[in-house]
Amino acid sequence: MALYHARLRDRFGMPVISLAILGDSSPGWRPHSSSDLHGGYGTTFQFRTAKLLDLRSHLEQLIASRNPVDLVLAAHLLGVATRRHTELRYPAKLRLLQSLHTHHCTGRELNELRTIIDCLMPLPEAWQRRMAMDIEQFVLDHEKEDKNSLNYLIPELILQRCKRQAAAEGAAMGEARGQAIGEARGEARGEARGEARGEARGRRQTLELQLEVQFGKLSPKLLRTLERANARQLERLAIALLDAGSLEGALSAAGLHRR
After folding, report:
1. 217 phi/psi in degrees, rounded to 5
2. Which of 185, 171, 257, 248 is nearest to 221 (CA)?
3. Could you identify which of 17, 71, 127, 201 might form a hypothetical disulfide with 123, taking C-beta atoms 3.0 to 4.6 angstroms apart as the criterion?
4. Are 46 and 119 within one domain?
């Protein structure tokens, strides 16, 4: 702040008053100066302060005011007062959003104020979904009003914003859960299929060696027949080879035919 003070005075050649706006939650912390001292020498910079907590006694007037700055100050004070107390923050935030209905804000002002209120008074996902439902009821209570009037449009815009936010959070969670479940199922199926294919391949290679020992070199046609055989047919062929008198007899017993 001291640096800004010096630069502004150099730039414009005019007296500068520095004001620190304190938005913390400690009523007793009210600094009025800062010092840069080394070896007993240096500078001390003095400034004025404005403590936002001092406005707590005017909270009702801030909420009822048509000045957007007053509404932001109310959101800040309520955010500080309800920190780590969602059950208290929820009705306070709902009241602020509903108060926009009586402020006759424009669409742009509404979106900007809604964004600021969300930043100053964030809610968990479940409470945000509940907020969307309560705002929807608020819209229904005013549905008899002119659809082109700000009295109708403002709560409608608030509702759409709440729904989009809740939907985005819900979609993100659903996508994450779906992906996790899908990956788990896919991995399990992949492992099962991989094991089955590996087992069939190993059995097929063993049968090829056994056939070659018993009946000599295998033809390409026979190799293709074994390649197309399923696990049950390969098992039958392994049993048939124990007492098979001929290659054709073993293949026939297993339900295999050379093509």
Report:
1. -60, 135
2. 257
3. 127
4. no
Domain that holds residue 237: 197-253
Q: Is residue 31 part of a domain?
A: yes
Q: Cα(163)–Cα(202) distance, rounded to whole angstroms?
A: 56
242 backbone φψ class: left, alpha, beta (φ>0; ψ -120 to 50): alpha
Task: Provide long-range contacts, Cβ within 8 A and 24+ apart, for 27-31.
Answer: 27/51, 27/53
Domain count, the chain: 3
User: For 132-182, how does the pLDDT look when each residue is reduced to its tens digit (9 = 90+)?
Assistant: 788 777 767 765 554 444 444 455 555 565 656 655 555 555 555 556 555
Judge contact between 5 and 48, C-beta under 8 A.
no
What are the E-state strand segments in 121-209? none
Q: Establish if 60 belongs to a structural domain.
A: no
Q: How far apart are CA 107 and CA 156, in angstroms?
A: 10
Reported in sequence order, the residue ranges of the chain that DSSP labels E, i.e. its strands, are: 19-22, 33-38, 41-46, 48-51
Distance of alpha carbon 208 from alpha carbon 223, whole angstroms: 8
Over residues 26-66, the pLDDT tens digits come to: 999 999 999 999 988 999 999 999 999 999 999 999 998 88
Residues facing residue 187 across a β-bridge:
none
Q: In residues, how long is the chain?
A: 259
